[in-house]
Write a structure and sequence with these properties.
about 525 residues, alpha/beta, Rossmann fold, Hect, E3 ligase catalytic domain fold, 4 domains, 4-stranded parallel sheet, 3-stranded mixed sheet, 17 strands, about 40% helix, DNA recombination, DNA_bind_recomb_sf, Resolv_N, DNA-binding
């Protein structure tokens, strides 16, 4: 009879310490492997180890075991280990290698530092065939090798290139089967009055029922908070006021926002029925899950009666404002760049209507009542653009490119071997020793080889990133790309624009002044780093 794997709880996973998993025997083996690496020649291939684990169970291979197995495999292959990219609690199905926190940094920014990427098993590295194809293309483009410890995968061999696609397809099929089983479980759970999977809605906790099945019970503290918020809403209090009071009193946790509070108050799950999230035009709402007879499924005691819930919704509907249709890029340009000089909060564009006319203005997110409003946001954008063009527009646009040094290293190796040959044959008893003419010609050739070796720049012998001028200035790039290009680059570089508003007597609109703050390394940050993993559609 098969045994069931024991999954670690969320708390246990959070508390998992890889360092604590190393036993004295593991540490002794690690030290032995490092000593063996020290004996490798300088030009030994460099290996990066990729360790990944999505869920800790009794049957999974621990990160320590994966690393030691990979180090043993590296020793067999003659690789020098230069780093370990460890990503725990990361799904290979949902997160591709280049987007993982540890491995992603190596792949995107530290590619010159290794020659081969070693992983324990393909399904530990990747589970999506399209992601695998992208990684193979990346490896071929940058001259890297992909090597698996427990699969016959090695891009340096023809059979390895063929098998990587075959095994990748099998891994994707296994991942698809897992996804199907999980989806089926969720669909089944929605039809049950017991709470089998998932996180309960706010206001409820799980407990074991009389029949031994997990049931939902009301959280007393959450019920108190929701009913207090309802009473405040009926008295006309704002959601911002309620959030401030509940956070200070401890009824709800810090980080609570008005959006979260309103979503909790509008959730029909507080009536005791099973609900699911429904998105309609960007608006997130919860709706009832119906059984086969078209009736809501009761799963818990009610927090609000139907009358209490309906009266609360009526009040919330009356206070809600009809917002204009959301623009694809948002109403605010240079979001995160334009900030308030007083509180450093973001400046946001708000829209209002009066007598059939629409007006736009900017206000602060943190100042009381939004601070003094800035009329005509477009004029502010224009002033910021002009200052950026003046400060950075004349600089050349540079693009980061990968420079592989394999040809340079091969040429240096040829020069050294040729020089060694002529030095040996010029010695007494060598082939050039008897003849003065032959000796003179050989010496001239040797001098030329040594001169060529001295002229070699050591930097060119290492794989590296190089910044190459693409032939245009930043002014030309921004003028052709428009405000969108300028906004994207400004945010990427980390430029800030502080806005100061000064009240003018007898004038409704304040006096506005700007202060543009450029990072000291702004020119380095401006370098365009192309996405090596972008998929062309």
């Amino acid at each position: 009879m098969a045994t069931k794997s024991k999954r670690a709880t969320a708390a246990e996973r959070a508390a998992y310490d890889v360092e604590a998993e190393w036993t004295p025997a593991d540490l002794a083996l690690l030290e032995e492997l490092k000593k063996a690496e020290a004996l490798l020649p300088e030009d030994a291939p460099r290996a990066l180890l990729s360790v990944r684990l999505s869920v800790f169970t009794d049957e999974t291979t621990s990160p320590v075991r994966q690393e030691l197995d990979l180090r043993l495999h590296a020793r067999e292959k003659g690789f020098r280990v230069v780093g370990v990219a460890s990503d725990l609690n990361v799904s290979a199905t949902k997160v591709p290698p280049w987007k993982r926190k540890s491995l992603g940094e190596w792949l995107n920014d530290r590619a010159p530092e290794f020659d081969a990427l070693l992983f324990w098993k393909l399904d530990r590295f990747i589970r999506n065939l399209s992601d695998l194809s992208v990684m193979v293309q990346w490896a071929e483009r940058y001259g890297k090798n992909l090597v698996s410890k427990n699969d016959p995968i090695d891009l340096s061999t023809t059979i390895g290139k063929v098998l990587v696609t075959v095994i990748g397809g099998i891994a994707e099929i296994e991942a698809g089967n897992t996804s199907t089983r999980v989806t089926s479980l969720w669909e089944y759970a929605k039809t049950q009055d017991a709470w089998l999977v998932g996180k309960p809605a706010y206001g409820y906790v799980t407990e074991e029922g009389k029949d031994g099945r997990p049931r939902l019970a009301v959280d007393p503290d959450a019920r108190t908070a929701l009913h207090w918020a309802r009473r405040m809403a009926l008295r006309g209090r704002s959601a911002r006021f309620m959030v401030r009071c509940m956070v200070r009193s401890g009824l709800m946790s810090e980080g609570l926002t008005t959006t979260t509070l309103l979503r909790r108050l509008r959730n029909p799950a507080t009536l005791g029925y099973r609900t699911e999230e429904h998105k309609n035009g960007g608006v997130r709402r919860s709706r009832f899950v119906l059984d086969r007879q078209g009736k809501p499924i009761w799963v818990a005691p009610e927090i609000f009666t139907q009358e209490e819930f309906d009266s609360l919704q009526a009040v919330l509907d009356g206070r809600s404002r009809k917002q204009p249709t959301r623009q694809p890029g948002g109403a605010t340009r240079f979001l995160g760049v334009i900030v308030c000089a007083d509180c450093k909060g973001h400046m946001l564009v708000k829209k209002t209507s009066n007598k059939g006319r629409s007006y736009s203005y900017m206000r602060c997110t943190d100042c009381k009542s939004g601070g003094l409003g800035v009329p005509a946001p477009d004029a502010l954008y224009l002033a910021l653009s002009q200052r950026l063009l003046k400060a950075l527009g004349s600089f050349p646009v540079q693009v980061r490119e990968y420079a592989e040094a394999s040809e340079a290293r091969s040429e240096v190796k040829r020069l050294k071997e040729s020089a060694a040959y002529y030095m040996k044959e010029l010695e007494p008893g060598g082939r050039y020793a008897p003849s003065a003419f032959a000796r003179e010609q050989a010496q001239a050739t040797l001098d030329k080889l040594l001169k060529d070796l001295d002229a070699v720049d050591p930097v060119t012998l290492q794989d590296r990133w190089e910044n190459v001028h693409n032939g245009e200035t930043w002014r030309e790039r921004w003028e052709s790309g428009g405000l969108e290009a300028l906004e994207e680059d400004t945010r990427r570089v980390g430029i800030k624009c502080e806005v100061t508003r000064t009240k003018v007597k007898g004038q409704r609109a304040p006096d506005v002044s700007l202060r543009v703050l450029l990072p000291k390394d702004a020119r380095d940050r401006l370098v365009i780093k192309e996405d090596a993993f972008a998929v062309e559609l």
